[in-house]
Structure formats: structure tokens, C-alpha cells
Amino acid sequence: MSGADPVLVGACLGLSLGIGLVLILLGSPWTRPRDLEARISPYLRRDRGSSLLRPRSAPGRRTVLLLLIGPIARHLLGLLERLTGDAEQLERRLRLSGSASGAETFRVEQVLCGIAGAVLGAVLAVGVVALRGASPLLGLLIIVLGAVIGIIGRDYLLQSSIRRRSVRMAREFPTVADLLALAVAAGESPVAAMERVARSSTGALPDEFAATVAEIRAGSTVSQALLALGDRTPLAALGRFGEGVAVAIERGTPLADVLRAQAQDAREASKRDLLEIAGRREIAMMVPVVFFVLPLVIVFAIFPGLAVLDIAM
After folding, report:
1. Residue 59: predicted pLDDT
2. What Å distances lie between residue 282 and 181, 200, 272, 290, CA to CA?
3. DSSP codes of every residue in 226-274
4. Given this model, what pLDDT does residue 66 score?
């Protein structure tokens, strides 16, 4: 420690003191929110029973660790929920991405990504402070920024997974709807048609139809399973497909015609998406033309005239 920078050591000690004071303030009984049960519990009589039947308390060290880490973990989870949404929204986004993990697993992955980002930020901060002689506050800011980037980066990967799955389902949907229409027109029931498509095809959408068939086999009605199919997929057209088929089954409408109409609507929507993408790409292609090609054309057109004028002068 003799060769350490006194400013850096002082900044670390001040940071530790500040974190400790903040934790003490947040964990004090005066600032801790009390629920209804905690407020009325002292005024209620409870039969405590025999002490032999009480569960054994945790060891002293474990109790101390839970008391110290518990408030920190709760505040970290609250911060993550404010940054990336609450547990219900996160569960729905995980269903839309097709992930089998739960919200708790995703939160753990976010914390690990935040720790990894903080470690990389610490390495970069040490290099900046030691080699460049920057301020220790800048190094602390780099560490915090690395942790935040790691947490938000994991959420961005989840959103990217939802977008990729939506695009993949949009490509598969017209073909799958045609297969369902052919199977129903051949005399099969809607459940048997979905099971045939799920068994004979591969992709994100056939997997969802397999899950829908499994729900129906477990006791759910066809209408409820189709509505649930629209809720757990990111494709809006698939939600309309589930509602249309459910209404057709309830009202006795010819299902093959409904499925063909749904497939035609899906193709029209795909064409509109392609036209929108082409329009955006056309505008993007104007950037190199305006900023790179056009200035060169102007230079090649004007430079000979300037050269002639220079020679004449």
C-alpha cells in the first residue's frame, strides 16, 4: 500500500463509507415500509404452541448474512424491475421469446451480466487511472457504467430474441395456414390438423402448435388453447388467426375457408412488410449517393473547367 495513490485510496474509503451509510439508512426501522400485517401484529394474540414443535432457527452466521444481504438484494431487484419492467411483464416477454426459463433465472442472468460488465469496467478503470492519470471518480463512473451496460445488454438480447422469433413466425405463418386449410378440407378435425402440421413441419410456429395440441389434450378447450396461442406469440397476425379460428369453431363457420382467408391475409401482410422494408432501404441507399457519389461527380465535372481557367490566367 506504500506505492498506492492516496487520492485513489481516499476515494475507495469514502465510497465504502457512503455505501455503508446508505445501507444503514435504507435498512433502519424508521425508513423501512411496514405492511398491514406488521402494524396489527402486536395487537393480536397468537397461540405460539409448544417450543418443541417450532421450526429450528437458522444459525447465527446465516441469520446475519440474510439480514445484511437481504435488503441489498431487494433493492437490486427493485432497481432491475424499474429498468426492465416488473415480473409480470418479464414473464410475458420470456414467453414471447420462446424461452423456457422463468423470471428468477433471467434476473440472475442480468445480475451476472452486470457483474461481468462491472469487472470489465474495473479493468478499464484501472488502466485509465494508472496509465493515463485520470481522476478516480472517472474510474468509478466507468465501473458503474459497465454494470449498467451489462444489465441493459441482457435485456436488449431478450428483445432481439423476440424480434427474431416474430420475423421467423411471420415467414412460416402463410405456409402453415395453407397446410392447416388443406388438412381441414381433407376431413380432419382442427386438433388433428394442428397435430399433423406440428409433426410434419419444423420451426417456431409448428412448435407452438404442438404446445397448443398438448394443452387441448390436457383438458383445455380448443378456443381457449387458440387464444393462449395468440397470447404467447409475438406475431399479431397469429393472435388474429387464433381468434378467427376460435370464433369459426364456436359458430360453425366452414373452417377451411377461414384458414384460406387467414393465409391470404398473412401473405398480404408479408407483402406490405416487404414494401415498407424496401422503402426504408431506398432512403438509406440515398445516403452514400448524396454524401459520397454526388460530391465526386461534382468534382469531376468542375475540376477540368477550373484547370482551364488556371491555365488561361
Report:
1. 46
2. 37, 39, 15, 12
3. HHHHHHTSS-HHHHHHHHHHHHHHHHT--HHHHHHHHHHHHHHHHHHHH
4. 47
Cα separations in angstroms, 18 against 13, 15, 146, 255: 9, 5, 20, 67
CA angle centred on 233, ends 231 and 235, rounded to 5°: 110
- Taking the C-alpha atoms of residue 135 and residue 154, their distance in angstroms, rounded to an integer, is 29
pLDDT of res. 62:
46
Do the beta carbons of residue 240 and residue 253 sit within 8 Å?
no
Kindly state the cell numbers that stand for 214: 398438448
Residue linked to cell 424499474: 82
How much is the pTM? 0.61
pLDDT digits (tens, 9 = 90+) for 127-147: 888 877 777 788 888 888 888
- Give me the pLDDT at residue 37, please: 67
Cell digits for 42? 402486536
- Cα(178)–Cα(129) distance, rounded to whole angstroms? 63
Residues 120-155 as b or e (16 or more Cβ within 10 Å = b): bbbeebeebbeeeeeebeebbebbeebbbbbbbebb
What's the mean pLDDT in 28-40?
A: 65
List all residues 6 or more positions away from 193 whose beta carbon is below 8 Å from its beta carbon. 179, 180, 183, 184
Query: Are residues 234 and 165 in contact, defined by beta-carbon separation less than 8 angstroms?
Result: yes
Which residue's entry shows cell 435488503? 71
